[in-house]
Amino acid sequence: MKITKATKDDWKVIQQLNSQVFLNDEDHDDDLDLSWPFSEAGIKYYKNLADGSYGHCLIVCIEDEPVGYVALAIKDFGYRKSKYVEVENIGVCPEHRSKGIGESLICASEEWALKQGAKKLYVAAYWKNKKAIQFYKRNGFEEIGLELEKEL
């Protein structure tokens, strides 16, 4: 397993890996636009993430095959004292899950966040995504709030 910083040529790899996250999250959000990863906005996001003009992205490869990634960005809450880095999205191919890849990505995320002067790593997870919540808790995250929405 090798973790490397994404380069500008990796945007399609990130897009493909993130589209799998979208498919997984379909069960947790009936308002999720599954075509977004392939939209103009999605492609712009992946290109900016890959070239480093927005955030920071790490890709995990096993024998030169991309099997996971994490997208990170500095998060400014404004009303909170600490500097945060947000795990905007993270994903591991289904056939490679539960093999320590996600944990390695979180560790690498912590290292990058510390280099940015951050004091906290932040992530939001769907309430119904119990596996993700358990994963984050196993990796040291604690609950700090609850997001709510109302259908109109």
Automatic annotation (TrEMBL):
Keywords noted in UniProt: Acyltransferase, Transferase
Any Pfam family: Acetyltransf_1
Lineage top rank: taxon: Bacteria
Entry-linked CDD domains: NAT_SF
Keyword Transferase: yes
Gene Ontology molecular function terms on file: acyltransferase activity, transferring groups other than amino-acyl groups
Family annotation (InterPro entries): Acyl_CoA_acyltransferase, GNAT_dom, N-term/lysine_N-AcTrnsfr
Keyword Transferase recorded: yes
Domain N-acetyltransferase: 1-152
Database matches in PANTHER family: N-ALPHA-ACETYLTRANSFERASE, N-ALPHA-ACETYLTRANSFERASE 50
UniProt-recorded name of the protein: N-acetyltransferase domain-containing protein
